[in-house]
């Protein structure tokens, strides 16, 4: 008697933006990093990946993934295969212990995934993507593993994905074991511990796609003469200091470390051979604006950070909304995004003392904003992207 | 019987552009550097300071300096005073040994100085300026000191000035003595050893003056976490390697070290707190153009380097003139400077494979070029900027 049931489970997973940057692998197959990192998980109201994992003995052919309506080639993606194989093994272990369970591990998977933000925004979606993939399959398979245990799986898909399995403030411990067994993510503070952290993202139009981060970080590991100092000496100190700042909700310290670590990361990129540039004149104008805002305030009330691209992410606390986001809203009133989460409440401030060049460069170079803040981890949902017949649901 | 003679001596002194950068002082009063550096002295046909030192017992009042027609306040310039006091002491020692000599050390100095390039070009003129000042006074005083001995004096005026007292390829040894007695410049190779080194300077219009180098380098020393590695570990290795490359006239090695050291210097600037930015999008377009030219050639035939500003200095060998300078001449045919020394002979090449963005950014951002090359040290001249009556000569 054939069981033709389509088993389904769905989740959403958040984007995270590091304040201590992950840059450099000590093992490229297992995605083991050269240094620990720490990120803030961002609210899923603005940015999330929604993924449904389904399986059925009625499915034929190999496992498939439809991402934003397009069939992805996951057969030749070592990273995706690594995740799927580990999760199927975990399910097999569960099935072995209880023979009454359906043999999901033998059924082909149909995965459907969609982002609620345009890929064109230039935001790294792979973290949310792999976190959602792993979380959805873990839900489908009813795995008993904790988010931290699953973080080892997600890490193999995309390093920073391990940090998107939790909400709030998340550390990825580099670990030292060769097999990666101690390279795990863990929540260092929950959203509720420090809920008023906001993030304003300035989306900067880049004329061309820069160096992909996977290639870039290995160029840095192999060629930057300053990188070992960063990875071995500087980052460990910053990790300890920023965790303390987060526990104490000490924003000025959090801000300074965040900005310094972003600069250190881009410094080792410039010190790579050939040099890697992610920051452009618009990014530097955003840095300058934050410096001006902080100087005016007499203490750091805003912190910029930049990933592998020119977009600025500016952290601030809700109480400083007008002094920080209000200035950017004044400068960038013409661009889209102010109607999103947390955006509507931001009142345009005056110019905030910005130099005319900074003002003009931001105005000309920022194409949209995203108004978000710290948020929770993946959320299970009944909204499935695969129908009961196993067909993708068009959004 | 009063001797009213106006004693005069004149010299020109060159600009130098470092390939291993001086950035950071271990003693700010004596201008002692944290690391050794190495530069190429540039031809004085394009860039020089012309200085006349004069003294006379008929002069009244304090020592004066007229620079480019403007009276400078040298009384409150500790750096200038340091140079003048040491040189007067040297003269006094000479006079003590031979009482027949006129007592020039007791006479007020009138110094007149002029650059053959506009200050607006954004080229650091302090190196040529202090080298010319020291050399002119040493000539006036008929001091027996060698250029290397005088380099200790010029260094107190402006660190990099010590390298402008010699031609060709000049090393400034950081030294370790507290009094700076071993912090000296010396020629590591003469112009004639490797005469076909050319330099194309792309003058980039900066919208505002960036961080002054004296302040900037101390910010780096005090705050950059990556700086100690650069100063203590990386630069010493590069100094040895580039000296070897210069002796062997090995341009590819010379070029790679030059570019890497420029990047390392700007990396520690970015790693400073607050971060220091000298490179802008036009600078990065110049780097990109050099990378493209080198990739096309299959080996490094051009080397960029950037001082404390956005201007690019591009070194190449005369044999590669068309492949390097010719590409820039094609892109920048509309700007001035191609009629200068070495410029007239540069034939416009085709576009050289430059990406359209690089092409457009250079075209929009470079305001003029200077076509120069390696050159000799200071040259004594009979063209005095002070007349026999002690009055400044208007050029």
UniProtKB/TrEMBL annotation, chains A, B:
UniProt KW Lyase keyword: yes
UniProt keyword annotation of Lyase present: yes
E.C. designation(s): 4.1.1.33
Keywords: Lyase
Superkingdom of origin organism: Eukaryota
Top-level enzyme category: lyase
The protein's name: Diphosphomevalonate decarboxylase
Classification lineage: Eukaryota, Fungi, Dikarya, Ascomycota, Pezizomycotina
Gene that encodes the chain: MVD1
